[in-house]
Amino acid sequence: MVKPTRVTNRIRVLRLEHGEMTQAELAERVGVTRQTVIAIEQGRYSPSLEMAFQIARVFKLPLDDVFQYPGDAD
């Protein structure tokens, strides 16, 4: 069984806020499969640092506005 990642994200919300972007559209813009986007959104897969930056750039946001890690101090 795959251990879920502790990294959380706001990708689904951000997709909807950006013209109801589909998972397939995001996947194409980042250069991954739709299945990869699904796994990241559901917390079953942590993207590489490079992929995380690419996803954040699609939404024109800083990395920590898209991805969070438990214990982050505000």
Strand proportion: 5-15%
**CATH class category of the domain at 8-58:** Mainly Alpha
Number of strands: 2
Query: How would you write the strand order of the largest sheet?
Result: 1-2
Mean pLDDT: 92
Number of helices: 5
Shape: globular
Low-confidence spans:
none
Give the name of the CATH architecture of the domain at 8-58. Orthogonal Bundle
- Helicity level, as a percent range? 40-55%
Q: Roughly how many Å apart are the termini?
A: 33 Å
The secondary structure category is mainly alpha
Largest sheet: 2 strands, antiparallel
Determine the CATH topology of the domain at 8-58: 434 Repressor (Amino-terminal Domain)
Order of helices and strands: EHHHHHE
> Rg, please?
12 Å
Summary, kept brief:
With 74 residues, the chain is mainly α. It has a domain at 8-58: 434 Repressor (Amino-terminal Domain) (Orthogonal Bundle).
Task: Give an account of the 3D structure.
With 74 residues, this protein is mainly alpha-helical. The chain has a domain of 51 residues: 434 Repressor (Amino-terminal Domain) (Orthogonal Bundle), CATH 1.10.260. The protein contains five helices and two strands. It has a two-stranded antiparallel sheet.
Keywords, please?
single chain; 74 residues; mainly alpha; 434 Repressor (Amino-terminal Domain); two-stranded antiparallel ribbon; 5 helices; 5% strand
Topology of this structure?
Elements: E1 8-9, H1 11-17, H2 23-30, H3 34-41, H4 49-58, H5 63-66, E2 67-68
Antiparallel strand pairs: 1-2
Helix pairs in contact: 2-3
